[in-house]
Structure formats: structure tokens, C-alpha cells
Amino acid sequence: MSQSHEELTAGQFGARAQAYVESAVHAGGADLDALADLAAAAGPAHALDLGTGGGHVAYLLARHAGKVTAADLSPGMLQTVAAQAREKALGNIETAVAAAESLPFANETFDFLASRFSAHHWRDFAAGLRQARRVLRVGAPAVFIDIVSPGRALLDTHLQTVELLRDPSHVRDHALDAWFSALTSAGFSVRSCRTWRLRMDFAVWTERMGTPAPLAKAIRILQEKAAAETRAHFAIEDDGSFWLDAAMIETCSVETFSVPGA
Predict the structure, then answer these.
(1) Three-class SS string for the chain?
(2) Across 84-112, average pLDDT
């Protein structure tokens, strides 16, 4: 039976919720430290974690905000986040089942927004950013963190292919120029951007998503057959482990925005 993209994503991640809560890649990192500093400086009354996944951004924001809404497509993921929040005695976290492209919140509900490792799953990237802008107050900060494409066609094709083989709910890792253009069009002003590299341990990376063995094997074949430039950029290792490009884009919502149909 065929599924919508939203159903596919919700089912894919609901079954892997605990794996993402426990994932070292998602639970830590210098980007989380930087995000904590931004949240502490802003002291928001109501923050939104858009595409919360394992909830790590929500737990961080809860220590600096009056209230945090953790939004995600997956009810199963949100149940795990709510349970973790109770364990951590974070009583100011609420959850909401929501697609980025159709957020069920009124205009200017939030005064801080963060989205981490989520946008590459959005069915409509531009629409998700427009919705993020719509629910954010004028002048409020928004931080977007995600894996980014190197941009070059040779490298981009390899990246999107291995991502999709691993996870059928993957849509696209966007290049930085696409991010900047889409953010500006949605009504955000980019303040800063920092980039870094993340090592993906192949066995952990595929196990976390429950990638079927034939698809994991297909990824390894692609890696082995990849051009020298591709192997060098992703620093592909003998066991299939490799490095990804990541970015943290700090923005501010600007006064003028328009969301068709909102």
C-alpha cells in the first residue's frame, strides 16, 4: 500500500524514536552548545522546536524558555520526547503533531525557533520556511541546523542517493546557496552561518534507521564505485564510514512576509 510522504516519515521515525534519543550525533555537538548560548541570550517566552526528532533541542530550550513546543510529524517520536521530558523534570515542554508545511499555530505565536536535522525531510522546503516565518514574531531569532549538500553535481548526486537508500523519507540535503535564497524569500535575514564536518560511522548510521541489509549493501557498492573526487570529499573509509557537511544558520525574522493560504 502506498503512503503519503508524511505517513512514510512518521512511520519511519516512530519505530526508531529511542535510537534517535540515544544517538550520540544528535544528543551532543558544538552546535547545541552554540544554540544554548543563543537561547540563553534571548530568554524566549515561547520557543518552537520544529522537527524535534529525539527532542534534544527541546530539552535544551526548556532550560531557557518559559515554554517550549516540540513539533514533529511522528506521534511515536513525540511520545518518546514527552516521556523523556518527564524523566528530566522538564514540565514546560508540550508536543504537537505537525508537518512543517502546515503548522497548526497562529501567526507570531513564538519568539524563538530552532530546527535541527529536520529540513531535509520536508516535502516542501520553501513552504516549511514560510510557515516557520509565519508563526514567529517580528524580530525574533530562528536557527536552522542541517546536513548540507556540497553543491557540485557529482557530489550532490552521491549524497542524495546514499541518503535515500538509507532512509526512504529523505527529500534533499540543500546546498547553502539554496538555504540563503529560500530563507530570504521566506522573510528571514541571515545573521551568521557556521559550517563543520560530521563523521558517520556506517554501522551506527544504518542501524539507527533500521536500513535493510540489501540497501546498506547498495550504499557500500556505490561508495566503492564512486569517483576519486567523491571518495575524497566524503572521506569514505574502508568500512563505509564517511564525513558529511553540516551548517548552522542563525537568522532573524523580518517585518515583511507573506504566506499564501495562511
Answers:
(1) CCCCHHHHHHHHHHCCHHHHHHCHHHHCCHHHHHHHHHHHHHCCCEEEEECCCCCHHHHHHHCCCCEEEEEECCHHHHHHHHHHHHHCCCCCEEEEECCHHHCCCCCCCECEEEEECCHHHCCCHHHHHHHHHHCECCCCEEEEEEECECCCHHHHHHHHHHHHHHCCCCCCCCEHHHHHHHHHHHCEEEEEEEEEEEEECHHHHHHHHCCCHHHHHHHHHHHHHCCHHHHHHCCCCCCCCEEEEEEEEEEEECCCCCCCCC
(2) 97
Question: Does residue 238 form part of some domain?
Answer: no
In a domain, 194, yes or no: yes
The total number of structural domains that make up the chain: 1
Would you say residue 231 lies in a domain? no
Q: The domain containing residue 50 runs over which residues? A: 5-151+169-198+245-253
Residues 6+ apart with CB under 8 A from 144: 114, 115, 116, 119, 179, 183, 248, 249, 251
Q: Judge whether 205 lies within some domain.
A: no
Give the C-alpha separation, 53 to 148, whole Å: 18
CATH label of the domain that carries residue 188: 3.40.50.150
What tens digit of pLDDT does each residue of 123-174 get?
Answer: 999 999 999 999 999 999 999 999 999 999 999 999 999 999 999 999 999 9
